[in-house]
Amino acid sequence: MRSNSFPIVDALQYSNWSETVFCQMNEGGVAAVHVTICYHEDFREMVENIIAWNRLFEAYPDLIIPGRSGDDVRRAHAEGSTAIFFGFQNCSPIEDDIGLVEVCRQLGACFMQLSYNNQSLLATGCYESEDPGITRMGRQVIREMNRVGLVVDMSHSAERSTLEAIEISERPIAITHANPHAWHPALRNKSDTVLKALAESGGMLGFSIYPHHLKDGSACTLDEFCAMVARTAEVMGVGQIGFGSDLCQNQPDSVVAWMRNGTWTRDTDYGEGTISAPGFPDQPSWFCDNRDFPRIIDGLRRVGFTGDDVARIAGGNWLDFFDRSFPGSGAP
Prior knowledge:
The protein is α/β, with parallel strands linked by helices. It has one domain: Metal-dependent hydrolases (TIM Barrel, Alpha-Beta Barrel), CATH 3.20.20.140. It has helices spanning 19-27, 43-59, 70-79, 99-106, 136-148, 159-168, 192-200, 222-236, 254-261, 293-302, 307-325; strands spanning 8-13, 30-38, 64-66, 82-88, 109-113, 151-153, 174-175, 204-207, 241-243. Strands 1, 2, 3, 4, 5 and 6 form a six-stranded parallel beta sheet that branches. A three-stranded parallel beta sheet has the order 7-8-9. Helix 6 (159-168) packs parallel to helix 7 (192-200) and helix 8 crosses helix 10. It is globular and about 45 Å long. The two termini are 30 Å apart.
């Protein structure tokens, strides 16, 4: 049984998974994590990643369980384990076959970004100079994702594409890991126009703690981060926000090159406005791993959130979103 009465949900991590990380999740009271199982992989490569996760579930059944619905979050919270929800940071696993959308959902995928920084077959990434919006295939895929219960994620997508996805999707979408552009103008952060449209549609925003998305980067203070959360609550309402840390714990710097370059280029894509070789920036001192979530929760209280609001931001809002998006056993 967890010491905290409410579940903590993190809507995005891409750590180097191990027993140590899973134990830290449990110690930090994290009941659910949306994990990235695809950046640039095709369908078969993505399946290999699911096979690897199945081995982890078998090896550590007391620490992690498969996440398919809100009930799995409740179970993990009660048992002191962590429910693992699968997601794609790109649409590459469906290749150019809309029939693979349903297959991916049947294999346990819960979230799929329509683009990752670049133009995809579905939408435009935030690094492109022009944004023509959702493509013809993208409209069809959104409809299919809605049908089978695969959440549209626009975390790495450009402005017009994101707004069109919100409008086209008949189910609320998610921006699982980003912050307000008005607070810090990173390419990946979202305008108030997007945040308001997201809230009005019933969607969710997960606040990123990845240093490139933070004001002052690794030097960002906990108080400033929590003040940003409070300002965003004024824009979106307290019921549409949560955590999406984008924690990449224990990953080698070479993984950053994989994220940015994939197989589409031989050149070094520095990205995020940096001029040095790709590598992970230092985490802010107040969030190094999952055991630090209680620090953020204390910081939210200090900036004036009520106990009920803190519980909603920490996990209750994502749990409600999971209940609406993945009813029952998580089957479509």
